[in-house]
Structures are given as structure tokens and as C-alpha cells.
Amino acid sequence: MSDFNDTFLRACRGEATDYTPVWFMRQAGRSLPGYRKIREKYGVLELTQTPELAAQVSLEPIDLLGVDAAILFADIMLLPMAMGVDVRIVDAVGPVIDQSINTPADVARLQAFTPDRIEYLQQTIKILRGELKVPLIGFAGAPFTLASYLIEGQPTRQWQKTKRFMFEEPEAWDQLMSVLSDGVIGYLQTQVSAGAQALQIFDSWIGALSAADYRRYVLPHMQRIFSSLKATGVPRIHFGTDTAGMLEDFGSVEAEVIGLDWRMDLGRARQLLPGKALQGNLDPITLLAGQDVIERRVDELFASMQDRRGWIFNLGHGMPPEADDTKVKQLVEYVHGKR
Ligand code: CP3
Question: What is the mean pLDDT of residues 74-101?
């Protein structure tokens, strides 16, 4: 297909591209007008499980913003749901699990993932591949981030129960990480079989750990996940926030691309992670400032990247719900115009 834009995939593989590709984490849903209209009638989970509508939400930013990749409209909690966990999404809160994981026996209750449990996602991916002229990114939450929701029972920014479980029950923790890792591998393999052309693993809350605890409690599982996904043949992106203190370990997995939040200097990440493509890392709050400020800060990111090969422009975390699509579209054009 000659009109297929593979700039994003080429950048993931570190190849030279005509311009710097750009997409935004949480570009689907959130602030866009078409999404908000659909949300008047449907809840988030219902939406993710209705392939025609979910595909429509993924497509909206492609047309409206002109980004170089699409992301599946889904949620990281769909995997635990497919493993038998009851999840509710509560407005203005996030995922809530009434029967949270508190004991080793709770870990044993998790069911194995099987592809038939996400037939709806496979269907969404097939619809999207029929429509898209840019690559489709599939994704999953990483085991630590998933475990934090399962153990806390709801979003917290302290991770007290999670860390306490990890410290006090190292064997059950390891079992939980192993079971979730198996799930992540199967879930992502299923997305690629259905047509996903790149994969991102979000370890959104991993920065809660020290580098030493990351190495001890999490990294072996991440290494297994990424190595297992090599056979899919698609680029693998490893994203986390607050990873500056553990970046060499975080970036040591077998992933083509490392996603960075805004706290990390891009030029420094290049030195620490030779051979990896990088993705990031404009502070999302920049989008709320004026266009001149946005462009000056984009200039600064470009100045810190001497070699533009293997760089995918993105935010340092998700798009703020308040972002204005006209400004975001201008930002995309500005990045595309930079040489
Ligand atoms: O932002 C990240 O760190 C990405 C990883 C992540 C997703 N969901 C991916 C996602 C995380 C940490 C979640 C958990 C989650 N699920 C939250 C955050 C809770 C917290 O701790 O603060 C929330 C609010 C949900 C429920 C949810 N998922 C909603 C309300 C929506 C739709 C609109 C929105 O606000 O984004 C989703 C969709 C979703 N979750 C997407 C992704 C990648 C698809 C949309 C996209 O990427 O554009």
C-alpha cells in the first residue's frame, strides 16, 4: 500500500525518516469533541467493548490532529478483567476493584488469559486496520502498574498497600508478577495477531520504586515479557514515568523504543541508552500554554537531540483533558515542519 505512512515504524527501528513522527499518549478519548459526544451515551468500558465505536474513537485524532500513529481505544484494566477480576470505572476516580488483592490466596484466584476473552478488541483492531493509513499501536499495562490497581483497589498516589505486599510477601508478589506477565504476553500477542503493528507497555507508576527494588522485584519479569514479544516482529515500546533514577535498568529490556517522561533530559537519555530509539517527552502541561511557549519548548527538545534518527515525538505522559485540539494540531504541524 503506497499511501501507507510508515514514518513512525521506521523511527522505532532507528531508521532515517523525512521528518520526526509524532503521536500523543491518550490522544484518543479525553478532550476530543467526537469522543465527548459518544461518551454522553456510553460508559468507557462499554465503549471499549463496542468495536465500531471504539474504532471511531481511535480514528478521531488521526483525521483531526494529523498524528503519525493510532492507538487502540482500550484500557489497561481490560486484561485483569479478562483474567476474572471485576473492575468498575468510576467517573473522576478511575478503575475501582471491590475485591482487591490482599493475600497470597487472592493471587491464586487470578485466571489465565485466553484470546477468546478479548474477541471485541480483536474486532476493533480489524476494523481499524481496514481504515488506517498510519500504524496501529496496541498496548498493555505493565505488571507493576496493573498490580498497583489490583492491590490498592483504586487509584492512589502512595502505593502503600502495593509496596507493603511486595516487601512482606515476596513469594506471592513474584507469583502475582508472573501471572500478570503471562497475561500481558498473551494479551499483546493476541493484539498483534489481530493486526497491531507496534506495542507499548505502560508502566505508568513504576517511578514509585527505587532502582534497587526495580531490579529485584520487577525487572526480571519485564525482561521476560519483552523477550517473549520479540517473535511478534513488531516494534516494542517500554514507557514509564519518573524513571530518571533507574533509566539504565528500565532501558535494559529488549525493546526497540524507550518512552520517557518530561523529567528526563533527552540528550542525556541518548547517552545512557545507546542503540535505543527514544519517545517523548514534552511536558503535557505545555499544551495549556500559548503557542509561542509551546513552539519554544519544542525547539528546545529538538536542540537536545543532535541525531534525529530513532526519535518519536510525544508528550512525557498523557494528554491533559483540557488540551485544545486546534493548538495540538498546530503543534503536530510544527514538529513535522522542523528539520
Ligand atoms: O496514562 C497512562 O499512564 C497510560 C496507562 C493507563 C491507561 N489506563 C491507558 C489507557 C493507565 C494508568 C490507566 C488506568 C486508568 N483507566 C485511569 C487512570 C487512573 C489513575 O490512576 O489516575 C483511568 C481514568 C482509566 C479509565 C479510562 N481509560 C478512561 C476514563 C479512558 C477514556 C478517556 C481518558 O480519560 O483517557 C480510558 C482509555 C485509555 N486508558 C486509553 C489508554 C491508552 C485509550 C485512550 C488513548 O490512549 O488515547
Answer: 97
Measured from the CB, is residue 24 less than 6 Å from ligand 1?
no
CA dihedral 39, 43, 46, 48 (to 10 degrees): 60
Note the pLDDT tens digit of each residue in 283-324.
999 999 999 999 999 999 999 998 999 999 999 999 999 999
The β-bridge partners of 258 are 238, 278
For atom 24 of ligand 1, the residue with the nearest CA is 94
Backbone angles phi, psi at 158, to 5 degrees: -120, -30
C-alpha cell at 193: 495477531
Question: DSSP string spanning 188-232?
Answer: HHHHHHHT--EEEEEETTGGGS-HHHIIIIIHHHHHHHHHHGGGG
- List the catalytic residues: 26, 30, 39, 75, 149
Name beta bridge partners: 236: 199
Measure the CA angle with vertex 283, ends 280 and 285; round to 5°.
145
Q: What is the pLDDT of residues 322-338, one digit of tens each?
A: 999 999 999 999 999 99
